[in-house]
Amino acid sequence: MTIASCSPLNKMGYVTPTHNMPMMSRTFDGHAMATAGFNHFELQGAFSPIKHVAVLGNLYKGFGGKSEWSKEWGGGLYHAFDDRFIVEAFYLRNDASIYRAKNRVLSMFLSEHVDYRKESLKSVYDGHSLQMDVGYKWYGEYADETTFTAALGVKWSEVVFREFSYKYKLYGDWGLSSQYVKEEYEVLMTKEALSFLAISGTFKYGTGGLRAIFQYSHHLGLSGFGPSQSEPPYYQPAWITIGLEAYIPNLKRHRR
Questions:
Q1: Measured on CA atoms in the order 241, 242, 243, 247, is the torsion positive or negative?
Q2: Fewer CB within 10 Å, N or C, the chain?
Q3: Strand partners, 44
Q4: Which of 115, 118, 119 is CA-nearest to residue 174?
């Protein structure tokens, strides 16, 4: 993402948070993760208060607009076979609010004519998700010494836009003496549903309560607006996450 004043407005009306796959294996298992990009940061966490039950939450905060945030929260069940092969399923609620605006001066080199573009996007939505993950853990002599986890997750999400607007105006010969509208465009909608299927692969490696994470996710638009259409809201079809995760180590001895 460029941060120059001439950069275009980000038209993504739906933010795509990192797929939270905690891979729980026992009571009081838990993890917390923070990641940051050029235009946002994320906080994630999960905890198992009792055996086979877990709660989790995600927070996304963007820097690219006047107001840009998304949050998810929920819970579900998990089961670990010999503390190694793990299956987990969660139900999540989510809501978000996005507002961005951008003014751009467009002019040709050595030209007397100057164009001025004004764009704004506002998106407010809420919805729910169903998520299922499977993974496998490899241990060192002790679980808190070295662990490597590979996991695959599938997440279906549906959101309903309570408010969405995208406005675009192009003014010609902008200046103190003259200004006229050369082009105008507007998209308005409410109560429109948008559904996605996210498929993510995650790898975790660490020791002593800290591990590195690499994740690749791909979003498939199932219904509603999408990047193949000419109108927003667009969404990000694919992304990579690299970060560090703090977790509660398991002191139980495992066979190599």
A1: positive
A2: C
A3: 33, 58
A4: 115
Question: Stretch 169-181: mean pLDDT, rounded?
Answer: 63
Full-model pTM: 0.80
Distance CA 43, CA 33 (A): 6
| Contact predicate 91/121, CB 8 Å | no
Residues 6+ apart with CB under 8 A from 177: none
Contact 74, 91 (CB under 8 A): yes
> For residue 233, is the peptide bond before it cis, meaning its omega torsion is within 30 degrees of 0?
yes
Give the three-state DSSP class for 45. Answer: strand
Residue 167 in tokens? 């406005």
Across-strand partners of 22?
none
Question: What is the Cα gyration radius of the chain?
Answer: 22
What value does the mean pLDDT take over residues 225-236? 57
Q: 174, 190, 183: which is closest to 104 by C-alpha?
A: 174
